[in-house]
């Protein structure tokens, strides 16, 4: 009994740095500026107000930036799933010449993060006239290094499916593409879910690429937009920044809390397991 | 056409289908991974001026600059400090949380959700909140003051800033490793613990002699991922400290960004990229070769 109480106590204390920041972000965004650094700090806003939220949309084209992040992440997620599930299926279930060598070549991409190649990528997109567009933020994750991990996860999952599936599909007269689309992909729902979640978050969090490629506020994505709420002296407008941060973080958090089982177990049971 | 039927065999068709399926990934890798990697080497021998649009061969000039740059040792020191601090803190906290959550307590799922939740919070949003909390009159110091500790001005001192960026990153992502460790812990056969207990092994001995060896493949995997990730950290530093105070939190990726995209020294930026690539490669190979030494079971 005492051991249990002790364990709960330790867990509660350990929770503080994980939970307190989110709590503080939301409550502070509802406080008037003058109360933000008040001591002793109050855990709840005494006089909650939405002034900061109004300013978020006034100072930046925030709704546009929100849409940019959302649609880019959606396109990247769908694109990555298409590329990685096709490649993963072929590497796991189709015997073709050089498949192992090609797989190794692609895996090398895991060692080459886009931070290493950002300078030439910038020049490539610059000479194609595609800087200050969303193309680099869409094409690099779908086709470049980030999708390699997705392909690896999909391949590991497809490898575990029984061999008889292909034979049964062939007996039923299904071609390779139909077998993949009608049998492989539906069975891979857990892997697809895990890849979708992490691809979406990766795109949603992207920061280096947007600040390198984008220069027009209307084209900014959320992470970049969040840092733009500064006063005339370059100092952060804390309550406005925190309001924008809350708007960015809360929807995803809500989805997570509702679907946390899929998030956590999808990850733990998908190829990434040692 | 009899010729065609013999040529168009099932296995040939399989080859073609296979190539077609992997083509997007393969061409994508060539265009967005291998071509830029080659170009990074090529650019490191050149100087590119965007404004004047000149691109000229300078030989080993950028590499001479790399060796002479007084900031490079500092940057590498900060990178090493950050990576080591991050990996040690991340893996040990992940292990602690996983072991605590593996005690079959009621409400474990709630705690697991809470520990994991920062993973889904937007990285820059998370960093901004911590930047706010770490102000000298911010939430962290207010919390410390209520227990009678005078906190430092976290982001304005070298050590404080380094501790801050490591901590912010660990609390953001430790949930991932925690979940992987938890899955591995649940895969350890219970009989092993029973047997050890009968032999009189204490909790620590059971952890060190049974748990750790049994989950060592997961430890290897997570440490490879965490080490590689620690070398890519950028947003937290750009938002929280801008590499400061001085160069105390200027890690290699941030320095690369500054040189290439703030000072427009693209050739030198490419040279720093080559250095980053060599470091990532060397560390991964090193960890992979060490696996025989301390990984008990090959998965």
Automatic annotation (TrEMBL), chain A:
Membrane topology field: Multi-pass membrane protein
TM annotation in the entry: 7-26, 70-92, 101-122, 134-154, 187-207, 238-259
Ranges of residues in domain ABC transmembrane type-1: 66-259
Keywords: Cell membrane, Membrane, Transmembrane, Transmembrane helix, Transport
Top-level taxon: Bacteria
Keyword Metal-binding: no
GO CC terms: plasma membrane
One of the protein's GO biological processes: transmembrane transport
Subcellular localization, as worded in the UniProt entry: Cell membrane
PANTHER family named among the record's database cross-references: ABC TRANSPORTER PERMEASE PROTEIN MG189-RELATED, ABC TRANSPORTER PERMEASE PROTEIN MG189-RELATED-RELATED
Protein family membership: Belongs to the binding-protein-dependent transport system permease family.
Stated name of the protein: Carbohydrate ABC transporter membrane protein 2 (CUT1 family)
Source organism of the structure: Nonomuraea fuscirosea
Lineage: Bacteria, Bacillati, Actinomycetota, Actinomycetes, Streptosporangiales
TrEMBL record, chain B:
Keyword Cell membrane: yes
Domain ABC transmembrane type-1: 76-287
Topology of the protein relative to the lipid bilayer: Multi-pass membrane protein
Record-linked Pfam families: BPD_transp_1
Transmembrane feature ranges: 21-45, 75-101, 113-133, 219-239, 266-286
Listed GO CC annotations: plasma membrane
GO BP field: transmembrane transport
Cell compartments where the protein resides: Cell membrane
Source organism superkingdom: Bacteria
InterPro entries: ABC_transporter_permease, MetI-like, MetI-like_sf
Protein name: Carbohydrate ABC transporter membrane protein 1 (CUT1 family)
Organism per entry: Nonomuraea fuscirosea
